[in-house]
Amino acid sequence: MEHTFLEQLRKRPLLCDGAMGSLLYARGITYEQCFDELNLIQPELIESIHSEYISAGAQIIETNTFGANHAKLETYNLEERVREINIRAVKLAREAREISGQPVFIAGAVGPSGRPLQAPDEQRLSELRTIFREQIDALLVGGVDLLMLETFSSLAELRQAVLAAQDVGGLPIVAQMSFYEDGHTLSGQSAARVAAVLNDMGVDVMGANCSVGPAATLDVLQEMIAADEQFGDNKRAVPQMFSAQPNAGLPTRIGNRFFYMATPDYFADYTVRFARAGVQLIGGCCGTTPRHIGAMRKALDGVYGAATSFIPNTSRESQQAKPIEITNGKATIAGLIEEEVILPQQGTKTRLQEKLEAREFVVSVELDPPKGLNPAKILEGAALLQKVGVDFFNIADSPMARVRMGCIAMARLIQDHLGIETIIHFTTRDRNLMALQSELLGAHALGIRNILSLTGDPLRVGDYPNTTGVWDVDSIGLIRVLRGMNEGHDAAGSSIGAQASFHIGAALNLNMTDEETDQEIEKYRRKIEAGAHFIMTQPIYELAPLERFLERAGKPPIPILLGCIPLHSSRHAEYLHNEVPGITIPDDVRSRMRAAGEQGHEEGLKLAQELLMSARSMIQGVYLMPSYGRYDVVSKLTKMLLMQQIV
Length: 647
Hints:
Helices cover 43% and strands 14% of the residues. By secondary structure, it is an alpha/beta fold. Helix 4 (43-56) packs parallel to helix 12, helix 6 (82-100) runs parallel beside helix 7 and helix 20 runs antiparallel to helix 21 (587-596). It is elongated and about 80 Å long.
């Protein structure tokens, strides 16, 4: 199955962002500073630049990691922070995307090592490959959608970067070299020669960036495209695609500053020329700004029409869903019938409650609300998942103690636009006892009745580590508050006018050490005594933790929904096992993911399916948590469960 980025690229040209370094320099960062370190020491600046490019219309933004490899960082004594800098850079780009609500692709930028390569021997080439592999591995862990290998002047070095990317695997590769005005690289290769080598290596997209302006870059791309048409027996089965990211002309020195003179209108004209020549990925390099990208967006839309919405990392089937449009602040999903939403009445059961009482197997998927104002991407993802048979959506409550749109508002949007019931996560971390009850009364009035009671992640892990937590009550206390409302009174015993109809959920951690088991079982029993109606567990990756728990705690008196985060690569498995608290992945599962290699996506789905089939008699549902917004993974797993009649 082809990656969504490549699918979209074949449909119409995609617009990439422009320069990062030029904007940093314009905003007071000197060239003597390490631009990549800014991901750690001035993250707001980097994120703001990403946001400007997204607002201008970029569909692809590059991480601020052009020089974030071991060799270049060594100059600044930062060589031990390669992983940290790259992962943080991806996080900043992803947060800018999430706040914008726009479904842009995140490209992991990889530049040359900066080491001279005269007559490189095998050892030198191997060292380069290791350097690139270290950076690319960190970008993959961070969650990029594709790799952008750019501004290489040595074809030998670019080959090592491509090989490193292929070693890591799993991501589309864009490989770009820099050419002079004579159409040759610094090391003397012609555009046709570069095209032939990159074609043989099987890169997904090849092209040119930096060094020269649009006119000379167009000449280079036309030579590459002409060479591609003459490859004969070496021609790819899948048509080759091309990219162009020229500079804004040659720099002019005025005083002590350098300026690029090519205007946004000039770039807009060449954007159409590139597209008509057969270039699919178009962007800018040194000297280009959000103004250039905005003009290019307008030019492309004038020829191809306004770009439709898409979701990065989704499957081919999901692309059949209709896009979401935002008009006057109201989100609508094209092709869906908007019907009046009838709120459940006091005393009526929720659909989740009815299904669980009927012993039906349920599937719920967790959705994280957006960090910004635009809910379109989340609503579209929910619409795609609804089509494949997902029963409910869990709406997280500022997970990892990071500010997001309120879970009640997001749940109501989903129920309004999709007519599907939600389960909101509700934490005691941020609200005192008055606020807890006020918001719960409001949620009930809005028809949001399924509540998963949580204490909440500690504030020190989030965006505001110095903020004071509240915790007037813990999760067990919140369950008691909800039970009291179902009896018709608040926490002080005052009447609320009628009996509420909350369906109350509680969390359970199955990944317990022997020392923690008794304490966790005691908490589980106290939650049931307090009034919990169902249990949702932390994710597990083998049956043993569930079996041990049931053996110690006995047959559960209320339904259990098993947590599941499908794995999609060996690195994903290692990251969850080693870096995420509360998740343990057994050795044999991680071994299977390593052995799967580039087929890790399929192996992860198979492992999840096997686990859920084995656990079917012990649980009454599954609670799926997509990583990095991978709706395609949980969509495919839902289909597999339906085919196996687990659901």
